[in-house]
Amino acid sequence: MLVVKCPVCGAEGDETDFHAGGQAHVRRPATHDPVNISDEEQRDYLFIRHNPKGLHFERWRCDRGCGKWFHAARDTVTMEFKAFYGITELPPSDLIAQAKGPWADYFANRLKAETK
Fold it and tell me: Model-level pTM?
């Protein structure tokens, strides 16, 4: 059983009280000009996801509480949740430091963009 806690309203319960929404921090291709979205960009958005062994970042929805979406950091080996944080926020800095592979690249780029 996974114990999930909503960072928005504080509701806590097992995973059946929440809705898993897949990988977090997925960026949709720019849709202001859909004709110019390449097939590769559309394919990557729809089908390509990280599937790491270890730290992974996911989207969850609070079904029995506030109904808001939020992010969770979870270890896929132990199934332990490491943190819950708002949908517009980055994970805690200690988890960003532990991120590997594509996650490390993603957070490095986000932090770089935010400091500009």
Answer: 0.83
